[in-house]
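User:
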Amino acid sequence: GAVTWFDAAKRLLAKINYQGSIVPITSEELNWPAARPKNSVLNLERVWMDFGIKLRNWELAMDEFWDEVLVKEWEQKSQPKPH
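Assistant: Predicted structure:
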């Protein structure tokens, strides 16, 4: 599925139970327009057709990355350092 940077950020912030609000903003609002099309979703149909590779849902992949990588990294950084 397609995902915006905003939607990805919302999902990650939900993982840490962030209670604040976030507001989507365009690059034009930042006065820093990006040189890209309005819709720049990556079409993976050719990857499937040519190589038989089907990527999983981005939400599931993000959850797995969170559980397997970020949580472990956070735990390691939270450990008291020996003196």
